[in-house]
Amino acid sequence: MTEIHAETGETIRSYSDLAIHAEVGAIIRHHSENKEDIRLVVRDAIPWDDDIKKILDLGCGYGWFEEVMPPGLDLIGGIDCLEENEGPFLAAARPKAREAFFRRLTLPAPAGLPPGQFDLVVSLYSLYFFPGFLPDVSRLLKPGGLFLCLTHSASMLEEGQHYFDFKNLRKVIERFSAENGGEILRPFFKETRHIDYPNSLVFHRGDEASLARYIDFKKEFIQKDVDPRIVREKMIAELGRKGELKFNKNDRIFLAQT
Questions:
Q1: How many beta carbons lie within 10 A of that of residue 186, not counting itself?
Q2: Which end of the chain is more exposed for a tag (fewer CB within 10 A), N or C?
Q3: DSSP per-residue codes, 54-72
Q4: Does residue 214 fall inside a structural domain?
Q5: Please, are residues 172 and 60 in contact by the beta-carbon 8 Å criterion?
Q6: How many domains does the chain have?
Q7: pLDDT digits over 45-57, tens only?
């Protein structure tokens, strides 16, 4: 059984509760200035007309992206280190493809899959956990295949850093961020481009419960730097004092071709 790396283990485990994800996802949608579903932006960036039929999702979670994929695909595979995501992932993937599989694996361990098998590999909000897997991504793609990854800006939640130094949060995101992702991808792919998704989370006076819940969800990212309870209390106090708090939630979609 593959173990989760100690360095990011607790952060990764924070992705394991589907009910909490659904609750926090609703909070993010409600408080986002950009109301376009990021999953639809990602889906519509993919050139499905190019006969993309076999897809591999790295860090697939519970099938968040599979829920919006078009039907009629040949194969959808998912790799994730959390075994509790297998059932939800397959439930989301099977209606979209003739065949679906899930592998419990902690990347960047070898995936044990044949080369050139996939038309499309995706990694959504996960590549900063395993950038060392990029050589395998290009190996798994067929010639001319597409790698799509979605990631945060390194300045994510930068407004909170006026009050606290979230150096470990930055350390995780900076492994593969909006700012450095193109440079990291370039050695492994012939061509790269990107699509920006500008966004901010905005909380107003009266939104204290939602703000507290969002901070609690991020606790595994920040607790190595600051006690999350202190962060929660401080930010709620600031919301009451200012009447509005706005947090950077800019993302970037990278598309890289073999």
A1: 12
A2: N
A3: EEEEET-TTTTTGGGS-S-
A4: no
A5: no
A6: 1
A7: 999 998 999 999 9
